[in-house]
UniProtKB/TrEMBL annotation, chain A:
Its job: Component of the NOP7 complex, which is required for maturation of the 25S and 5.8S ribosomal RNAs and formation of the 60S ribosome.
Protein name per UniProt: Pescadillo homolog
A Pfam cross-reference name: Pescadillo_N
Upper lineage: Eukaryota, Fungi, Dikarya, Ascomycota, Pezizomycotina
Naturally occurring in which organism (per UniProt): Achaetomium macrosporum
Region of interest (Disordered), residue spans: 312-362, 429-448, 485-672
Automatic annotation (TrEMBL), chain B:
Domain BOP1 N-terminal: 163-425
Transmembrane segments: none
Family (UniProt): Belongs to the WD repeat BOP1/ERB1 family.
One GO CC term on file: preribosome, large subunit precursor
Protein name as annotated: Ribosome biogenesis protein ERB1
Composition bias, Acidic residues: 35-86
Major site of localization recorded for this protein: nucleus
Residue ranges, annotated region (Disordered): 1-119
Length: 672, 783
C-alpha cells in the first residue's frame, strides 16, 4: 500500500493560493498587495474545482496562482512598501512619544504621492516586464488612454490630487500631439458616453473614450485609491510610450511646455514640439504650431499662411506633375517607395488583401481649409480632429481659450465655420443683438459671411469616418442631421445594417408579410373611400391571423411541437378553401361584380400562397432539423442548441430593428 | 559652635556678676548649684574613666591570662620572648576594643559605686529643710549630639509674659526650671551702656531672657552678608589652578618606545569615510542644504526622467498561462448621440428598462437621440463604468472560453434527404374503430390482407386491412382483456393465437380471403396434435406433477366461432412469439416465477418450460429468425440461448432500467430494444454487448419496437406519449460497415388516455405500412 495522501498537499491545491494566504506570504498589507497586483498585472484565477483547491471549509472567493505569488516575492517594489511601512511606524512611534519634531523630520522624508503626485519608487521595470516589446504596450493602451483622459477631466479632490490631474492632462495632450504629427488618428465617434477615438499606431488599433467636457458625476461607492493605482501605472506607461513615439517621428520628448499659455487655456497650443536634430526642427515646428504660435497678428499670419499654402500647393502640384509624367513614361523602372498594385492577370487566383492606394490621402482631408469654431462648439475635440486630419489653421472665438489661429470671425481666410446653434428668426435676432454684446461680435446671430461653408460639428466626424468630405448641405445649421453611425461596427452577414435599404436585408418572409400588410391597408383605404362593403374583413382577418401564426413560428423557433404545425398546415389549407368559398357565396348574394376587389384579391392571394409555400418550406426545414438533431450526441446537441439560442436572439433583435424601421419608413411615406 | 562658646562666656560673666550681687544669691542658688553640678560632673566623669581604666586593667589581666593561654596554644609556632612588646600593644588594643564594644555600661562597677559611696548630697533647701541632691544621671548617649544646646526653654510658642510673675521663665529639657536671668537695674544698664561689651546688641534672647550678645565671628558674618560677600570666610573663592604636572616640560620621555606609525601616517579609515562622503556628494546623494520649501519646489519642478524603455526589446513568447485582459467592445450604432431612429427604445422598452434592476439590464444605457451636439449632456455613469473596468482588470478571474465561431448547422450530420429514404409511412390511412376500451395488440397476417386486434373488452377482431371493415370477431372472455394476438407466420395456414389471462387460444378466423382449402389446412394443423399430445403427455409426465399447460378444446360455442384450441398455463400470458416455421411458439407470463417462459409445440400439443430458474422477471422472449437461438429479455438484460446445445450464448446489456420489448432484425445480427425509461437502443450483436446507438426521442415509455420484416430498412417504436417513430435503419451487407440509423418520421394521431398512448405496432409483411394499437380504442394503419 502506498503512502497515504493528505488533502491539500498536491495537485490543484498546491497550484492555487487564496488571497489571504498570498498576503500572509508576502507580508504586506492588503492595499499594498492590491497595488502590486494591479501593477504587475496579476489577476485571480478560477480553479476548475473550487472544492479541491480550498483547504478550509469555508468557501474562499479569490484564488491566485501560487506561481504568480512566488513571482511577486522577488519584486523590488515589495522592499519599497516595507520601507514605507517602517517609516510610518517610526512616525507613529515618534508621535506616540510626543516627539513632534522627530515625527516632522521623518514625515518630511516620507514620500507623499498624494501631495506631490510622485512616489519614491518608479514603475519603469514593471512596465518593461509587462510589455517586453513596444507593440505589447500599444496593444494594451486602450484602457490606459481611457483612464487618463477621464482623469484629465476630473475635478481635483483629496483622493485625486491636482498634480495628478495636471500630469494626466499633459500626457494626454502630448499623445494627441503625436497623433496630429503622425496623422495616425483614423476614426472618431460621438456617443452618448463621450467621444470615441481610434488611432492606428504601428499597425495596432487603439480605441479610447474621452468624456465630454463636463463635470463628471461620481456615483456609487468608487474607490479612488484603486483607480489612482491604475492611473499611477498608466501615467508612467504613457510617458514612456510618448517618448518612444516622439523619438520615432524625430521629435524631442518632452516637448516644451508653456505654462502661461496653458493657464490661458491653450491646451494643445501650450506645447511646442522640437525636432531632435536641426534638419527636422523647422519643419516640425511649422507642423504643429505654425499659426497657433503667432496669435498677435492674424491677418499678417493669414497672408503668410496663404502664401505658404500656395507655395506648398504649387510644390505639391509640381510633385504631382512630376509624378504623373514619370508614371506615364514608366517604361523604364522608376524606383519608388509606394506599394505596387497587384492586379490578377488571369482569373481563378485568390485575391489577396492589399492596403488601399488611394490618390487622396485621408490624413490631408482638411489641409486646404481654414476653420472657425463658434463659441458653442466643443473646441478641444474639434481642434484635435481637424489638426489630425491635416488642418493647419483653426480659429475660434476668444472665449474658447488661447492658441487660435484667429479670434476674428470676419477673417477672410476662413473657409469653413462650424456652428452648433439653431437658426434664429429675423424678428428674434433683432432683439438678441443687444444681449450678444459681450462677445464683441457686432453681427446678428443669423449673419452669414458669403463664401464660407457653415456646418454642424457632426460634419467633421462623418467626414473623417468616411474619409471624404460630406456634402455640407446635409449638415447645415438648423438642419435635421442624418444619423451618426458608429464606424467601429463591422458589417457581418445577416446582421441588421442601418446603412443598407431595408429591402436588401429583410428576409423573404418579412417582405411578404410587409407587402401583405400594405395590401391590406390599401384595401381598407379603398373600401373606406368607395363602398361600405365588409367583404374583405374576413380576408383581412384571415391575413392577420396568418401573420400572427407566422410570427409565432418565427419566434418560437424549432422548440415548438410539430403536431401543431401539422395541424396548422391542414387547417391553413382548409381555411383558405373555406375563405374562397365564402367569398364566392357572398359575391353571389350581393349580386355585385367584385372585380376591383378581385384584382387586389388575386394579388394578395398570390402573396398568401407564396407565404404558405414559404411556411411549408420552413416546416419542412424544421422537421429536417429535428431529425438531424436527433442524430447528435447529447453533448453536441446541447452545444448546438446554445448556438442556436444566441443566433436566434440576435436575429430576433435584428428583426425588431427591421420592424421598427419599416414602421418609421411607412410613417414617413405617409407624411409625404 | 560659636554660639556655644558665647554662652559659656556669658555664663562666666554672669557668675562674675553674681559674685557681686548678693541679693540674688539666694535666688540663683539653684543655678549655681546646677553649674556646680556640672563642674562636679566632669571630675566624676574623670573618676569613671579612671575606674574604667582600673577595670580594664583588671580585665586586661584576665585577658593577658587568656592571651597567655593563647600563646601557649600558639607557642609551637612563634617564640614568645621576642613578641613581648607587641603583645603588650595588642593587649592595649584589645582593651580599647573592649571599651568600644562595651562603652562603660558595665553595671558592676556602678553597683560598687553605689555600695561604696552615696550618690547624693544632703543640702539645705530654701526653707532650711533637708534636701537630697542627687548627681546628675549621665545618660551616656556617647554621641556627638550637636543639637543638645544646653538649657533650652521648652514652654513652646507662648508669650513669655505668662512667666512674668515667676522667678523662672520656663523649663529645660529635664524639667528643671530655667531661672530668670537677673535683670540689671538702671544703674547696671547705664554702666552697661557706658561700657559696651564687645558684641552687645541690647537685645534679649527670648528663650533664655539673657541679653543677646554676638561674638566676633558672628558679627563678621553679619557684616559679610550685609556686604554681599560670601558668608564663609574663604581667602579666594576662585583661585588660579596650579598646574602641577604640565607646567613643567619634561625633558626625558616617559617611554623609550619609538613613535608609532599611526602618529604620522594618514588614517586609512578616515580616508575611506571621506571618500564615501565625496562620492555621495559627487553622485548627488548628499545635497547642499536648502530650506525644505525650496527643495520641495525643486523636486516638483524636476521632470520625470524619460528614456527609451524598449531600446533593446526582445519579443518574448507569451506565457501560456497568461490571459490578456479582453478589450472592451467597440461602441455600436445604438450608442450614438444621433442614432438611426429604429434604435431608439419604444415606450414599453423604456419602461421595462427602467423597471428592471440595474444588474438585470442587458445594456446599462438607453439609446437616446439629440438633434444637436450641444444638447448632449455628460454621461452620468462614466466614472463608475471606468471603475468597474478597473475592478474587472484586477479582480475578475479570467477564463479562456473557446467560442466556436462556426455555423451551428455544421455540427449537424449530413443526412440523406427524406425522399431518398422513402418509402416509409407518413399518414394515417385507416382507423379501425370498434373495440371498447384499449386495443392491446395488433397483428397483420402473413399475407398482408387481414389485421387482428385484441382489446380490453376481451374480444379478438379481424379486419380487412385496407378498408378497415371488421370481418370477424370473437369474445374470448367477458372480464379479462386480450393481451396479445399473433398470427402463425406461415402462409399455408390462417391461424391466430391470442392470450387472455392464463389461456392461450388458437383459432382460425373466417375471412374472405380464406379459401375453404386453407381453412381446412389450418384446422388440420391445429387438430394434428390431439392424438399425438395424449400419447406424449402420458409418457413424459412424471406422476404427481402438474403439467405446465393443459391443451384442450375450448367448448362448442367457441369452436363454432373458429376457436379450436385452448391452452391453459399457470399465470397470465402477456407475450406470444411464433417461431418462423410456425410449429413452436413461446409465451411469456412475467408474473409466473419459474414457468414464466414456456415453449409450446403445436404439432405435439406439448408445452415445455425451458428454464428452471430465471434471474429476474422475464419480460419477453423471441426466436432468432434464422438460427436455433432463443432470446429471453428480463428487466435489465437479454439472454441468448442456443436451443440445440442448450446453453447460454450471450448476454446483451442494453443498460436500460426496464426493458419493455425487443425485436431482432431479420438479418439476425441486430437487435432493437425499447425500454420503459424512454430509450430505444440498437444493438449490434457482433459488435458488443452494449448498445451501438441510444435514441431518446420519446417523452414517455416505449411500449413496443418492431423491425420491418419484409425487406425494407425500417423500424418503428410505439410510446406512451401517443406517437410512433419511424426510423430508417439500414444494415449493410458489408460486415465492416456500421448500420445507419436515421429518424424519419414521427407519427402522431393516437390520443393519450390514462398516460397510455400506443400499445402495440406491427408492420405489413411487404409494404411500408404499419399498424398501431392505441389506448384510445382505435387501431390505425399508417402508410
Amino acid at each position: 500500500m502506498g503512502k497515504i495522501k493528505k488533502k491539500g498537499q498536491a495537485g490543484q491545491a498546491k497550484n492555487y493560493i487564496t488571497r489571504t494566504q498570498a498576503i500572509k506570504k508576502l507580508q504586506i498589507s492588503l492595499p499594498d498587495f492590491r497595488k502590486l497586483c494591479i501593477w504587475k498585472g496579476i489577476y485571480p484565477r478560477e480553479p476548475r474545482n473550487r472544492k479541491k483547491v480550498s483547504k478550509s471549509a469555508t468557501a474562499s472567493t479569490t484564488f491566485y496562482y501560487t506561481k504568480d505569488i512566488q513571482y511577486l516575492l522577488h519584486e523590488p517594489l515589495l522592499q519599497k512598501f516595507r520601507e514605507q511601512k517602517v517609516l510610518e511606524k517610526k512616525i507613529s512611534r515618534a508621535l506616540g512619544r510626543g516627539d513632534v519634531s522627530d515625527a516632522a523630520r521623518l514625515e518630511r522624508n516620507a514620500a507623499h504621492p498624494e501631495k506631490t503626485g510622485k512616489p519614491r519608487y518608479t514603475l519603469n521595470h514593471v512596465i518593461r516586464e509587462r510589455y517586453p516589446t513596444f507593440i505589447d504596450a500599444l496593444r494594451d493602451l486602450d484602457d490606459c488612454l481611457s483612464m487618463l483622459f477621464l482623469f484629465a477631466n476630473l475635478p481635483s479632490t483629496t483622493a485625486v490630487p491636482a498634480k495628478m490631474i495636471a500630469r494626466c492632462e499633459r500626457l494626454c495632450l502630448e499623445f494627441q500631439h503625436y497623433l496630429i504629427v503622425s496623422h495616425s488618428l483614423r476614426k472618431s465617434f460621438l456617443s452618448i458616453k463621450g467621444i470615441y477615438y481610434q488611432a492606428n499606431i504601428q499597425g495596432e488599433d487603439i480605441l479610447w473614450l474621452v468624456p465630454y467636457k463636463f463635470n463628471q458625476r461620481i456615483v456609487g461607492d468608487i474607490d479612488f485609491r484603486i483607480m489612482g493605482t491604475f492611473v499611477e501605472f498608466y501615467m508612467t506607461l504613457l510617458g514612456f510610450v510618448n517618448y518612444r513615439l516622439y523619438t520615432s517621428v524625430g521629435l524631442k520628448y518632452p516637448p516644451k511646455f508653456d505654462q502661461l499659455k496653458d493657464d490661458q487655456g491653450a491646451e494643445l497650443g501650450a506645447f511646442a514640439l522640437e525636432g531632435v536634430n536641426l534638419a527636422t526642427n523647422g519643419e516640425t515646428k511649422a507642423i504643429t504650431n505654425g499659426e497657433a504660435e503667432r496669435g498677435p497678428d492674424p491677418k499678417v499670419q493669414a497672408e503668410v499662411d496663404k502664401l505658404v499654402q500656395q507655395l506648398r500647393d504649387e510644390s505639391n502640384g509640381e510633385k504631382a506633375d512630376e509624378g504623373s509624367p514619370a508614371d506615364e513614361a514608366d517604361g523604364e523602372e522608376n524606383p519608388s517607395d509606394a506599394i505596387d498594385k497587384f492586379e490578377p492577370v488571369a482569373p481563378g487566383g485568390d485575391v489577396l488583401p492589399q492596403p488601399s492606394y488611394s490618390s487622396s490621402d485621408p490624413s490631408q482631408l482638411f489641409s486646404k481649409f481654414t476653420f472657425y469654431l463658434s463659441r458653442e462648439t466643443p473646441r478641444q475635440p474639434l481642434e484635435f480632429i481637424l489638426r489630425a486630419f491635416g488642418c493647419k489653421r483653426i480659429g475660434w472665438d476668444s472665449v474658447l481659450g488661447e492658441g487660435a489661429f484667429t479670434t476674428d470671425e470676419s477673417d477672410p481666410s476662413i473657409t469653413h465655420q462650424i456652428v452648433d446653434r439653431p437658426v434664429v428668426r429675423a424678428a428674434v435676432s433683432g432683439e438678441g443683438d443687444g444681449e450678444d454684446n459681450q462677445t464683441a461680435q457686432k453681427l446678428g446671430p443669423n449673419h452669414r459671411y458669403p463664401g464660407r461653408v457653415y456646418v454642424q460639428p457632426q460634419w467633421v466626424w462623418d467626414s473623417i469616418n468616411d474619409e471624404e468630405l460630406k456634402s455640407p448641405e446635409l449638415y447645415a445649421p438648423g438642419a435635421a442631421l442624418p444619423p451618426h453611425l458608429s464606424p467601429f461596427v463591422k458589417p457581418t452577414q445577416g446582421q441588421y445594417d442601418p446603412t443598407i435599404p431595408l429591402e436588401e436585408q429583410q428576409t423573404e418572409r418579412e417582405a411578404i408579410d410587409a407587402e401583405l400588410e400594405d395590401a391590406n391597408q390599401e384595401q381598407q383605404e379603398g373600401e373606406e373611400s368607395e363602398v361600405e362593403n365588409d367583404m374583405d374583413v374576413a380576408s383581412e382577418e384571415g391575413g392577420e391571423e396568418e401573420e400572427e401564426d407566422g410570427e409565432d413560428g418565427d419566434f418560437g423557433g424549432f422548440s415548438e411541437g410539430e403536431e401543431e404545425e401539422e395541424e396548422e398546415g391542414s387547417e391553413d389549407e382548409e381555411e383558405s378553401a373555406t375563405l374562397q368559398r365564402q367569398r364566392e357565396l357572398e359575391a353571389e348574394i350581393s349580386g355585385k361584380s367584385v372585380q376591383g376587389n378581385k384584382k387586389v384579391d388575386a394579388k394578395t392571394k398570390a402573396k398568401l400562397e407564396a407565404k404558405k409555400a414559404l411556411e411549408r418550406k420552413k416546416r419542412q426545414e424544421a422537421e429536417d432539423l429535428e431529425r438531424a438533431k436527433g442524430m447528435l450526441s447529447k453533448k453536441k446537441r446541447k452545444l448546438f442548441e446554445q448556438m442556436q439560442y444566441t443566433n436566434n436572439k440576435k436575429s430576433a433583435e435584428d428583426m425588431k430593428l427591421r420592424a421598427k424601421r419599416r414602421k418609421l419608413e411607412k410613417e414617413r411615406a405617409q407624411k409625404t | 559652635m560659636g554660639s556655644k562658646l558665647a554662652d559659656k562666656k556669658r555664663k562666666s560673666r554672669e557668675s562674675d556678676s553674681e559674685s557681686g550681687d548678693e541679693l540674688a544669691n539666694g535666688l540663683f542658688d539653684g543655678v549655681l548649684s546646677q553649674s556646680e553640678d556640672e563642674e562636679d560632673y566632669v571630675p566624676s566623669d574623670d573618676a569613671d574613666e579612671e575606674e574604667d581604666a582600673d577595670e580594664s586593667g583588671s580585665e586586661g589581666t584576665d585577658d593577658s591570662e587568656d592571651n597567655g593561654e593563647d600563646d601557649d596554644i600558639l607557642s609551637d609556632d612563634i617564640p614568645s620572648d621576642i613578641d613581648g612588646e607587641e603583645e603588650m600593644n595588642r593587649l592595649v588594643k584589645q582593651q580599647g576594643e573592649l571599651e568600644i564594644t562595651e562603652p562603660g555600661v558595665d553595671p558592676k562597677p556602678k553597683e560598687e559605686d553605689d555600695n561604696g559611696e552615696k550618690n547624693y548630697r544632703i543640702e539645705k533647701d530654701a526653707n532650711g529643710g533637708i534636701r537630697y541632691v542627687y548627681d546628675e544621671i549621665d545618660p551616656v548617649y556617647d554621641s556627638d549630639d550637636t543639637d543638645a544646646q544646653g538649657p533650652v526653654n521648652t514652654i513652646g510658642n507662648i508669650p513669655l509674659s505668662f512667666y512674668d510673675s515667676y522667678p523662672h521663665i520656663g523649663y529645660d529639657i529635664n524639667g528643671k526650671k530655667i531661672m530668670r536671668p537677673a535683670a540689671g537695674d538702671a544703674l547696671q544698664s547705664l554702666l552697661d551702656s557706658i561700657e559696651v561689651p564687645k558684641g552687645w546688641t541690647g537685645l534679649t534672647d527670648v528663650n533664655t531672657g539673657n541679653p543677646l550678645n554676638l561674638s566676633q565671628e558672628e558679627l563678621e558674618l553679619v557684616r559679610r552678608v550685609q556686604m554681599g560677600l560670601l558668608p564663609d570666610d574663604l581667602q579666594d573663592p576662585y583661585p588660579d589652578t596650579v598646574e602641577w604636572f604640565t607646567s613643567k616640560e619634561e625633558i626625558m620621555p616617559l617611554s623609550s618606545a619609538p613613535e608609532p606609525k599611526r602618529r604620522f601616517v594618514p588614517s586609512k579609515n578616515e580616508a575611506k569615510q571621506i571618500m564615501k562622503l565625496v562620492r555621495a556628494i559627487r553622485e548627488g546623494r548628499i545635497l547642499p542644504y536648502k530650506p525644505p520649501e525650496e527643495r520641495e519646489r525643486e523636486e516638483e519642478e524636476k521632470e520625470e526622467a524619460h528614456f527609451d524603455l524598449w531600446q533593446n526589446e526582445e519579443p518574448q513568447a507569451p506565457n501560456p498561462m497568461h490571459i490578456p485582459a479582453p478589450k472592451l467592445p467597440p461602441p455600436g450604432y445604438d450608442l450614438s448621440y444621433n442614432p438611426p431612429e429604429e434604435y431608439l427604445p419604444t415606450k414599453e422598452e423604456r419602461e421595462e428598462w427602467e423597471k428592471a434592476d440595474p444588474e438585470d439590464r442587458e445594456k446599462e444605457y438607453l439609446p437616446q437621440k439629440y438633434n444637436a451636439l450641444r444638447k448632449v449632456p455628460a454621461y452620468g455613469n462614466l466614472v463608475k463604468e471606468r471603475f468597474e473596468r478597473c475592478m474587472d482588470l484586477y479582480l475578475a478571474p479570467r477564463v479562456r472560453k473557446n467560442r466556436l465561431n462556426i455555423d451551428p448547422n455544421s455540427l449537424l450530420p449530413k443526412l440523406p434527404s427524406p425522399s431518398e429514404l422513402k418509402p416509409f409511412p407518413t399518414v394515417v390511412q385507416t382507423i379501425f374503430r370498434g373495440h371498447e376500451g384499449r386495443v392491446r395488440s395488433v397483428a397483420v397476417d402473413p399475407t398482408g390482407v387481414a389485421l387482428a386486434t385484441g382489446g380490453d373488452d376481451g374480444t379478438v377482431r379481424v379486419w380487412e386491412l385496407l378498408t378497415g371493415r371488421q370481418v370477424w370477431s370473437v369474445r374470448l372472455s367477458s372480464d379479462e382483456p386480450v393481451n396479445t394476438v399473433r398470427w402463425r407466420p406461415t402462409k399455408d395456414s390462417f391461424i391466430l393465437a391470442a392470450a387472455v389471462g392464463e389461456d392461450i387460444f388458437l383459432m382460425v378466423p373466417t375471412h374472405a380471403s380464406v379459401t375453404p382449402a386453407l381453412d381446412q389446412a389450418s384446422r388440420d394443423v391445429l387438430a394434428a396434435g390431439f392424438g399425438y399430445a395424449t400419447n406424449g403427455q402420458q409418457q413424459t409426465l412424471p406422476a404427481g406433477k402438474e403439467p405446465p399447460a393443459k391443451w384442450a378444446r375450448p367448448g362448442t360455442k367457441l369452436e363454432d366461432e373458429g376457436v379450436l384450441i385452448r391452452i391453459t398455463v399457470r399465470t397470465t400470458v402477456k407475450v406470444i412469439n411464433w417461431h418462423r416455421r410456425g410449429d413452436h411458439f413461446a409465451t411469456v407470463s412475467p408474473t409466473g416465477q419459474r414457468s414464466s417462459v414456456a415453449i409450446h409445440t403445436l404439432s405435439k400439443h406439448l408445452t415445455q418450460i425451458p428454464f428452471r430458474k430465471l434471474s429476474g422477471l422475464a419480460q419477453t422472449a423471441a426466436f432468432h429468425p434464422l438460427r436455433p437461438l432463443f432470446f429471453v429479455a428480463t428487466q435489465r438484460t437479454i439472454r441468448c440461448y442456443d436451443l440445440q446445445k442448450l446453453e447460454l450464448v450471450k448476454i446483451v446489456q442494453p443498460g436500460a432500467k426496464w426493458i419493455s420489448s425487443f425485436d431482432i432484425h431479420p438479418g439476425g445480427d441486430n437487435l432493437i430494444v425499447g425500454s420503459y425509461d424512454k430509450r430505444l437502443l440498437w444493438h449490434d450483436l457482433d459488435l458488443s454487448n452494449r448498445p451501438y446507438k441510444t435514441m431518446r426521442f420519446h417523452s414517455e415509455a416505449i411500449r413496443q419496437v418492431r423491425y420491418h420484416k419484409g425487406g425494407l430498412p425500417l423500424f418503428a417504436d410505439a410510446s406512451d406519449d401517443g406517437t410512433l417513430q419511424i426510423f430508417h435503419g439500414k444494415v449493410p451487407n458489408d460486415q465492416l460497415e456500421n448500420p445507419t440509423i436515421i429518424p424519419v418520421k414521427m407519427l402522431k394521431g393516437h390520443k393519450v388516455i390514462n398516460k397510455l398512448g400506443v400499445l402495440d405496432i406491427d408492420w405489413h409483411p411487404r409494404e411500408p405500412w404499419c399498424v398501431s394499437a392505441g389506448a384510445d380504442g382505435t387501431a390505425r394503419l399508417w402508410m
